[in-house]
Amino acid sequence: MPYFFFPSPGLLSKGISVVLKKMPAACDSVLEDIEDIVSAQDLKPHDRQFVRKNVFPKVRKRSSQQSTQIDDDPPSDSIIPGVQKIWIRTWGCSHNNSDGEYMAGQLAAYGYKITDDSAEADLWLLNSCTVKNPAEDHFRNSIKKAQEGNKKVVLAGCVPQAQPRQDYLKGLSIIGVQQIDRVVEVVEETIKGHSVRLLGQKKDNGKRLGGARLDLPKIRKNPLIEIISINTGCLNACTYCKTKHARGDLASYPIEELVDRAKQSFQEGVCEIWLTSEDTGAYGRDIGTDLPTLLWKLVEAIPEGAMLRLGMTNPPYILEHLEEMAKILNHPRVYAFLHIPVQSASDSVLMDMKREYCVADFKRVVDFLKEKVPGITIATDIICGFPGETDEDFQETMKLVEQYRFPSLFINQFYPRPGTPAAKMHQVPAAVKKQRTKDLSQLFHSYNPYDHKVGERQRVLVTEESFDSNYYVAHNPFYEQVLVPKDPVLMGKMVEVNIYEAGKHFMKGQPVSDARVYTASITRPLAKGEVSGLTEEFRHTPRNGTNWKAHPSAEIPVKTSFSPWMPSQLPWQQEGSGLKILSVSLALLAVLVMVYYGGMKTEL
């Protein structure tokens, strides 16, 4: 007797066929009609319909806890990005602060509200510093606090860029130091519940760039001060430095872009510019120029009353430009101030640090500038307890501080940073490091650098409010801090004051009644929290997959929804792509047909 196989289309799709039992004797004869198979005992169509109506689906029970979780966590498609509140916290240097300002500006331009209240924020953007252990500890604790508060988290800065695989960073969104122009996309995906990591480098024809564009929207913490990063990375390989792992090798911005950024800042009411980078002295060596060339171009763009402050430079790269640097630092619109880290006054320690200079080089720079730029302020850094530092080495450092009596001295106890060569060296005992830090701090506080200036009449630029909110903070031509009365008329003004008191880190000045108060800004400064850099280009021109348009509730641009993994044009928007898509579709259909019938043949 034959067996009858009735393949079910629904089951065939799962690779299953149905085999019927051997038919009864009544079917042993040849069938002329398929309906002859149906016997009198089989259900009629009407009966089948009646039975179907009496079948009740089984409802799967769901716990109330699961139901609550589903209600609280809607699908990502139902979340509207661009309306949430974001709290931004930045640690570290002025370069990092500039990055934070750019990220805040882009998020605000998209429609997000930047809040100072971490408790009311939906998402925390934590912009980290990797220089010392305490800074990373604060960063790690903030992540834990955010998670405990059920906040969405996006991480930025040097810590996740240098070590993105650390356990406490797992599952969290990260935006790299050169990808800050894509912060909106990362935040958008994070709010939807996704984890996104963008850690790549900006390149043009294979050449590494300085970073994100300088003309992006930003929110300045101080509307009167513009921080401009002139380059990222450096040429050194200091054995204690973790920042190198994050910022990489030197990559400089072109001079014209930096000058344009400065001009734009002045048009927005800025009256003071800070130039920053990991090493300003190395600027331009990768693009065939140098720091003095940049500075002379910038000086031409600075309006009367506005000031320029130079950032940190290491001794090796300033030595060959001493003459030009002295001329620039004597310019009336440039602060006579320079930050030159020495780190140690022991040549053997400097060699272990791979600092690429000796103590004599540092002294030559300082002595030359003090002679050619009268009154110049030299700030420096010192590390206490570097591996291998002996008592004799440390005493050499003490003598250097005693000799120069630096008015601004950054004292750092050595912390071994993971992954650095110095972390593997023989460490100085913690108690010794602590004592050396204490001894150097006592020496620094034993002298008052400003006592001799009491009674002087100085010209100062007022730009900030003091931490205790009792004074306004101004700076004289040597970038020395002068506290003045908290009179709103003085903010953003160049005024003359009489110095009547001096402290360790500041002087106090009283405005001269008959002196002219000069407005440093060429136009009204932006309001605090207002987004800068909103040019017509950002309002109307699509750039790198970002379409800026007018926000329905405010005169700020907003990006239309766009996936961070898509190119600037979607496949169907690209020229000549129709035939390609048709070909791919037909090929895919052919594969599906082959799989379907191949499975059917196998079962039969």
From TrEMBL:
<dbReference type="GO" id="GO:0046872">
    <property type="term" value="F:metal ion binding"/>
</dbReference>
<dbReference type="Pfam" id="PF01938">
    <property type="entry name" value="TRAM"/>
</dbReference>
<dbReference type="GO" id="GO:0005791">
    <property type="term" value="C:rough endoplasmic reticulum"/>
</dbReference>
<dbReference type="InterPro" id="IPR023404">
    <property type="entry name" value="rSAM_horseshoe"/>
</dbReference>
<dbReference type="InterPro" id="IPR006638">
    <property type="entry name" value="Elp3/MiaA/NifB-like_rSAM"/>
</dbReference>
<protein>
    <recommendedName>
        <fullName>Threonylcarbamoyladenosine tRNA methylthiotransferase</fullName>
        <ecNumber>2.8.4.5</ecNumber>
    </recommendedName>
</protein>
<keyword id="KW-1133">Transmembrane helix</keyword>
<comment type="similarity">
    <text>Belongs to the methylthiotransferase family. CDKAL1 subfamily.</text>
</comment>
<dbReference type="InterPro" id="IPR007197">
    <property type="entry name" value="rSAM"/>
</dbReference>
<feature type="domain" description="MTTase N-terminal">
    <location>
        <begin position="84"/>
        <end position="192"/>
    </location>
</feature>
<dbReference type="InterPro" id="IPR038135">
    <property type="entry name" value="Methylthiotransferase_N_sf"/>
</dbReference>
<dbReference type="GO" id="GO:0016020">
    <property type="term" value="C:membrane"/>
</dbReference>
<feature type="transmembrane region" description="Helical">
    <location>
        <begin position="581"/>
        <end position="599"/>
    </location>
</feature>
<keyword id="KW-0819">tRNA processing</keyword>
<keyword id="KW-0479">Metal-binding</keyword>
<dbReference type="InterPro" id="IPR058240">
    <property type="entry name" value="rSAM_sf"/>
</dbReference>
<dbReference type="InterPro" id="IPR005839">
    <property type="entry name" value="Methylthiotransferase"/>
</dbReference>
<dbReference type="InterPro" id="IPR002792">
    <property type="entry name" value="TRAM_dom"/>
</dbReference>
<dbReference type="InterPro" id="IPR006466">
    <property type="entry name" value="MiaB-like_arc_euk"/>
</dbReference>
<keyword id="KW-0408">Iron</keyword>
<keyword id="KW-0808">Transferase</keyword>
<keyword id="KW-0949">S-adenosyl-L-methionine</keyword>
<dbReference type="GO" id="GO:1990145">
    <property type="term" value="P:maintenance of translational fidelity"/>
</dbReference>
<keyword id="KW-0004">4Fe-4S</keyword>
<keyword id="KW-0812">Transmembrane</keyword>
<dbReference type="InterPro" id="IPR013848">
    <property type="entry name" value="Methylthiotransferase_N"/>
</dbReference>
<keyword id="KW-0472">Membrane</keyword>
<comment type="function">
    <text>Catalyzes the methylthiolation of N6-threonylcarbamoyladenosine (t(6)A), leading to the formation of 2-methylthio-N6-threonylcarbamoyladenosine (ms(2)t(6)A) at position 37 in tRNAs that read codons beginning with adenine.</text>
</comment>
<dbReference type="GO" id="GO:0035598">
    <property type="term" value="F:tRNA (N(6)-L-threonylcarbamoyladenosine(37)-C(2))-methylthiotransferase activity"/>
</dbReference>
<dbReference type="Pfam" id="PF00919">
    <property type="entry name" value="UPF0004"/>
</dbReference>
<feature type="region of interest" description="Disordered">
    <location>
        <begin position="58"/>
        <end position="77"/>
    </location>
</feature>
<feature type="domain" description="Radical SAM core">
    <location>
        <begin position="220"/>
        <end position="451"/>
    </location>
</feature>
<keyword id="KW-0411">Iron-sulfur</keyword>
<dbReference type="Pfam" id="PF04055">
    <property type="entry name" value="Radical_SAM"/>
</dbReference>
<feature type="domain" description="TRAM">
    <location>
        <begin position="451"/>
        <end position="513"/>
    </location>
</feature>
<dbReference type="InterPro" id="IPR020612">
    <property type="entry name" value="Methylthiotransferase_CS"/>
</dbReference>
<dbReference type="GO" id="GO:0051539">
    <property type="term" value="F:4 iron, 4 sulfur cluster binding"/>
</dbReference>
